[in-house]
Amino acid sequence: MRKKLIAGNWKMNKTPSEAMELVELLKNKVKDSENDVVFCVPFIDLDIVCDILKETDIHVGAQNMYFEDKGAYTGEISADMIKNVGADYVIIGHSERRAYFAETDETVNLKVKKAIEKELNPIVCVGESLEQKETKIGLDFVRIQVKCAFKDISPEDALKVTIAYEPIWAIGTGRTASNEDAQAFCKAIRDTIAEIYDSSTAENIRILYGGSVKSTNAKGLFAMPDIDGALVGGASLNEDFEKIVNYNK
Ligand code: 13P
Question: Is this model's pTM higher than 0.70 or not?
Answer without folding.
Answer: yes
